[in-house]
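Researcher: Please translate sequence to structure tokens.
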Amino acid sequence: QVQLVESGGGLVQAGGSLRLSCAAKGGTFSDYAIGWFRQAPGKGRESVARISWAGSNTYYANAVKGRFTISRDNAKNTVYLQMNSLTLEDTAVYYCSAAVAYSGPYDYWGQGTQVTVSS
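Model: Translation complete:
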């Protein structure tokens, strides 16, 4: 069973950038599609981006398209989320999740990392 640990969150000014990492252990990392989700205060969890096991397919929510880039390095068992041009609306706890199928369900979750964008 894969276990996921997120890192890279923090406080950043609007317009700035952050790169989140999702490190996996256990299981065979390249067997899993990986998704990034986020949950802002008082809101439900939403899908941000996902990437197939080989990295050949990616998905982005409209709210982040053109600003965020998801990538993976299977040799390092890590998926990245590069976030540029951050806005106040990107403030949330970001979670990575793994699924056997690219379309889901995403069953394995990390503990989350906080991203706070300030004005």
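Researcher: Any highlights?
Model: The CA atoms of residues 37 and 46 lie 5 Å apart.
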